[in-house]
Amino acid sequence: MEKLKDDFLDSLSEEDGKILLKIALNAIKNKFHLSFENIKIPEKFNKKSGAFVTINEGNQLRGCIGYPFAVYPLYKSVENSAMNAAFEDPRFRPLSENEINSIDIEITVLGELQKIDYHDINKIEIGKHGLYVKKDHYTGILLPQVATEYNFSKIEFLQETCLKAGMEKSCYKQSEIYAFEGKIFK
Q: What is the pLDDT of residues 57-94, one digit of tens each?
């Protein structure tokens, strides 16, 4: 297998990231009927792409939901993920209107999931690649920044992805493993 790389992610600029962040914030503001900035959606945002939106309040996670697969156009993945992270993440109470000015939004645009064998973990670059594991009806995903935030080794990253899926730490030896690039905008 070649080195994991995603040309679409490479094409996304910082300016694109600013637009994606506005799309996410607009979706949340719209829920509260607050005024928001009209945005012209760039043509390239019509490409189907997975994306996750993470909402933090200070240093505390307030929601993180997204699409690991390229089901929707990028702009729609971001819009839906923002709404779900703000209001539907079962780990947290829904965001309230008075929290709008105290949240930080982070968007991770996901590259194509590429199947790897656990013997090929040397191809994973900590901080650049995320992991998705699947076995039967269990699935788990960890975004690239998680490994960096927790200073995981490659094996620990695999183990934690298994735990996220609700399986044993060693599940990666019998599971399908996918790696993907993620481009992060804050």
A: 988 999 999 999 999 999 999 999 999 999 999 999 99
Q: Tell how far CA 151 is from the center of its chain.
A: 18
Domain carrying residue 83: 7-110
d(CA 164, CA 130): 13
68/153 Cα distance (integer angstroms): 22
Residue 172 has φ and ψ, to the nearest 5°, of: -60, -20
Q: Which CATH number do you get for residue 175?
A: 3.30.1490.150
Distance, CA of 51 to CA of 71 (rounded, Å)? 10
Question: Rounded to two decimals, what is the model's pTM?
Answer: 0.90
User: pLDDT digits over 23-49, tens only?
Assistant: 999 999 999 998 888 899 999 999 999
Query: Do 22 and 105 reside in the same domain of the chain?
Result: yes
- N-term to C-term CA, the chain: 31
Burial of 30 (0-12, 13-18, 19+ CB in 10 A): middle
